[in-house]
Design a protein that fits this description.
Layout: H1 2-23, E1 29-33, E2 40-44, E3 50-51, E4 60-64, E5 70-77, H2 84-92, E6 99-106, E7 110-117, E8 120-128, E9 133-142, H3 146-158
Antiparallel strand pairs: 1-2, 3-4, 4-5, 5-9, 6-7, 7-8, 8-9
Helix pairs in contact: 1-3
């Protein structure tokens, strides 16, 4: 059974990478693996080509693109015992000016949000691990670049993995 599960995950990763490569024309996929929490995500590093320094706490990393998009892959300890449902409810209830959730979905151990924040579009996927770590991929881009980034965000978000 485990063998088939691994094969299924391998095919999912291949399909995700294919979607990224196809969507971005000749962009090559890059996989980031975080040493502290073990999360990984795959994205076209020809687009997100400006990596910021990793924070001293080693919780993740952020990349910028030349056209104003940002991608973050990070992890945090789930000290507040947050669940996918409580995370989404909290974000939907936010009164932060310029912030609006327009799409959300939850599963047993994951949550997805999309919306707008200060004139930009954001997409966030969180995995709630059995090890009490929340792993996140967050992508934000100018609304004027919706046609460019909308096809990428799903594949990048689905590439988020736990160790």
């Amino acid at each position: 059974m485990h063998r088939f599960h691994r094969i299924g995950r391998s095919w999912a990763a291949i399909l995700c990478l294919s979607a990224i490569a196809t969507t971005t024309a000749l962009a090559r996929p890059f996989t980031y693996i975080n040493e502290r929490f073990g999360q990984s995500c795959t994205f076209p590093d020809e687009i997100f080509n400006d990596p910021l320094p990793e924070p001293t706490n080693g919780d993740g990393r952020q990349w910028l693109s030349a056209d104003g998009a940002e991608l973050t892959c990070s992890g945090i300890n789930n000290v507040d015992d947050e669940t996918p449902q409580s995370f989404v409810e909290g974000e939907k209830a936010s009164t932060e000016p310029g912030y609006k959730v327009t799409y959300s979905k939850t599963g047993k151990n994951w949550a997805v949000l999309s919306g707008t924040k200060n004139g930009k579009i954001f997409y966030e996927r969180r995995l709630f691990g059995k090890d009490e770590v929340i792993r996140t991929v967050f992508i934000e881009y100018p609304a004027s670049l919706k046609a460019k980034y909308d096809p990428l965000v799903g594949a990048i978000a689905k590439s988020l993995r736990e160790p």
